[in-house]
TrEMBL record:
Single GO cellular component term: membrane
Gene Ontology terms, MF aspect: antiporter activity; xenobiotic transmembrane transporter activity
Residue intervals passing through the bilayer: 46-66, 186-207, 260-284, 290-309
Protein name: Protein DETOXIFICATION
Keyword entries, A-Z: Membrane, Transmembrane, Transmembrane helix
Any Pfam family the entry gives: MatE
Lineage: Eukaryota, Viridiplantae, Streptophyta, Embryophyta, Tracheophyta
Organism: Eragrostis curvula
Keyword Membrane attributed: yes
UniProt record similarity statement: Belongs to the multi antimicrobial extrusion (MATE) (TC 2.A.66.1) family.
Length: 329
């Protein structure tokens, strides 16, 4: 019984039908089809994913609240202190804590290294926006606004992070059990939930952006400048919510290397050059910098979505991966 429970996928979905000699219920899995699976919805799957994601979201929020409150306190000291605190926190998180995880196991270290590099590409690109904002005419104001946008997007990403972990687990679990239809359905539900919660977050941001900005600074100039960035911030939050789930799918399928190359392309070949073009050459300043970030996120979403939709899921077999290539298929 223990082996059967271990082999059963998490949140596994069944249709129950009466049958058998004893008149009991027989579990029958959904058939793997090549229909429009991205339009499917399942309330039970959604409830299971919410229950799975909620603890991770709460934990991530609680963890991020520590540096966030520190940044808010620094913002009360001045605009430059606000940007400096954000840069210091992010730099320490990406280069310090992330690279110290699981260093005692070589096989796990290989996976963690790829995952950290993949995630760090996006973090570092945002940090470079803070540095570039320091070259703007009003450097203190520019760096403060970019820092506030960065922290706001990070708060929304805590929600996406929970669903990214859910879909990574669900996809790998279902693919390992050979349940292709359930893996596709889990992707649809997770992406829908992430988007719905992102929209709810954006409604709160749209209605209370002045109140949110006032937590970072008591300067009316900063609050007004942040309000002008809100429409662009809404776009980046929506794109970030979808890419988080699609990146989780990539991890679940063993495509960590592919996701890392996608992030490198999106943020450093597309995003940052466009940020320089919009911000400096075209004179859009901090709005131009954030537009470049949006273009990078859009490119990342398009590549990951193309890979996800064009993948022949029936041919993915996680059990055939050898030890030298455990995390890439």
């Amino acid at each position: 019984m223990g082996e059967e429970a271990a082999a059963a996928p998490l949140l596994r979905d069944f249709h129950l039908h009466g049958g058998g000699d004893g008149g009991g219920e027989k579990a029958e899995e959904l058939p793997a089809t090549r229909s429009r699976w991205w339009l499917e919805w399942d309330a039970a799957e959604a409830a299971g994913q919410l229950a799975f994601a909620a603890p991770m979201v709460v934990t991530s929020m609680a963890y991020f609240a520590i540096p966030l409150v520190s940044v808010m306190y620094a913002g009360r000291l001045g605009e430059l202190e606000l940007a400096a605190a954000t840069l210091g926190n992010s730099w320490g998180t990406v280069t310090g804590i992330a690279l110290m995880v699981y260093c005692n196991d070589q096989s796990v270290l290989n996976l963690v290294t790829v995952l950290n590099v993949s995630d760090s590409f996006e973090y570092w690109s945002i940090e470079m926006l803070v540095l570039l904002a320091g070259l703007m005419p009003e450097s203190k104001l520019s760096t403060s606004i970019i820092a506030m946008c960065e922290n706001t997007q990070a708060v929304s990403y805590m929600i996406t992070y929970g669903f990214a972990a859910v879909i990574s687990t669900r996809v790998s679990n279902e693919l390992g059990a050979g349940n292709i239809a359930n893996a596709k359905k889990a992707l649809t539900v997770s992406l829908s939930l992430s988007l719905l919660l992102a929209v709810a977050f954006l409604l709160l941001l749209g209605l209370g952006h002045d109140l949110w900005a006032s937590l970072f600074s008591n300067s009316q100039k900063v609050v007004s400048a942040f309000a002008s960035m809100t429409p662009l911030l809404i776009g980046s939050v929506v794109l970030d919510s979808t890419q988080g789930v699609l990146s989780g799918v990539a991890r679940g399928c063993g495509w960590q290397h592919m996701a890392a190359w996608t992030n490198l392309l999106a943020f450093y070949i597309v995003g940052l050059p466009l940020a320089l073009l919009f911000g400096f050459t075209l004179g859009l300043h901090i709005k131009g910098l954030w537009l470049g970030q949006i273009c990078g996120l859009l490119c990342q979403n398009c590549v990951l979505l193309f890979i996800t939709l064009r993948t022949n899921w029936e041919k993915i077999d996680l059990t055939t991966l050898n030890q030298e290539n455990d995390f890439f298929c």
